[in-house]
Amino acid sequence: MKIAFHGAAQTVTGSKHLITLKNGKKLLLDCGMFQGMGEETASLNRDFGFVSSEVDAMILSHAHIDHSGLIPKLVAEGFQGKIFCSPATKDLTRILLLDSAEIQESEARFAEKKITASTHDVLKPLYTMEDVKQALPLFVAKEYGDWFEVMEGVECMFTDAGHIIGSQCVHLKIKEGGKDTRITFSGDLGRYRDIILRSPEVFPQADYIILESTYGNSLHDNITGTLELLEHWINRVCVERKGKLILPAFSVGRTQEILYFLNQLDLENRLPKIPYFVDSPLSIEATDMVKRYPQYFNKRIQNIMKSDEDPFMFPGLVYIKSVQESKALNYRNGPMVIISASGMADAGRVKHHISNNIENSKNAIVMTGYCEPSSLGARLLSGAKEVGIFGVEHQVNAEIGEIRSMSAHGDYEDLCQWLACQDPREVKKLFLVHGEPEVQQEFKKRLLKKGFQDVVIPTRHFETGLE
């Protein structure tokens, strides 16, 4: 059997890993979209590196677009197999894919005004709403902890990854020639002692492990300090300077986490009485969906919900849906907090809010999660004095900050804790994916010291045999 890495290889986006069995059957782990890769993003998303119609089945680790975002393209190009995931991942992926298709179709219509023969293919959407609708019936939901058949000779079990609602680690048992091969794919791993979700679960011994490494060389700030940091920024910007605090936040996971912390500040009578806006229709829909799966919350949140049935709602919170309401925020004076997607500030409504507020020194833009190096969020954090947004150069006069403790990805201690249930002598190879090269090299040294003997950092389209 062979495995090939067609995305999230020495980068943190575009997750796609293809297992080819000796009998020719192909199993795809994730089918993610490349995001925030600058000018090469479009070309990376056009070419899978494999033939879609030859893939027999797919397993999806979680709903984030960098793991699920090219599924409709896969189906449009001929994939007809089943897509296995958890129930919450199935529901959440539907929301995210429909939103992705809508954005692409909208951008394509706008681009038609500037279209030329040479740019036509680049400006075409990767897929349409209709493509998404063709893909959705292929999803099959499976619960955590139950072994199920993916195809003849391949069994799978999910364990909770603790990354976002419904995220799962994937554990495979593959029978070939009378021999069992055990493969584990981490997907994206969450944090132990997460403020909302359960911790990642222990898992059976594996022969091969595919492990994400986003924060493989760093430690997060203590998560218990997030409440104070958020309170600090609100007081500093909105109370003292009467400015606008803009919080770019991923629609799934990060937005709900921010709302939870704001609700806690309100319950403790520490939340300033100013307007709070969630300006993202996707975030609103995702928050409603998250509330439908309280069984995935940790025990602390479940106890809180006995007296506060909605831990993501508080007085003063307003959800913005229409474009007109969103634009009206630009003309509204006075202090306010705006939570809006995308988390890297590279697209979506938050990019408009940054464009309209970045030159005012009373305001602040505070990043709340990982930013790919070429994204607008990363450029702001790097100290850029000028940034181009929608073709216009803006002076960066607003204060720029970040809350590092707010991450859905585990740091190197979390990643090592997840691996602690494994005997490293029995792991034949450990593949590091979903990370930047310099981070992966540092994490590789740490893993070698822990006894893992063969740690591989694959490049894109790298293929290797498994014993």
From TrEMBL:
One of its GO terms (molecular function) is hydrolase activity. InterPro entries: Beta_Casp (IPR022712), MBL (IPR050698), Metallo-B-lactamas (IPR001279), RibonucZ/Hydroxyglut_hydro (IPR036866), RMMBL (IPR011108). Residues 13-232 form the Metallo-beta-lactamase domain. Residues 255-380 form the Beta-Casp domain. Its EC number is 3.-.-.-. Coiled coil: none annotated. SUPFAM superfamilies: Metallo-hydrolase/oxidoreductase (SSF56281). It comes from the Bacteria. Keywords: Hydrolase. This is MBL fold metallo-hydrolase.
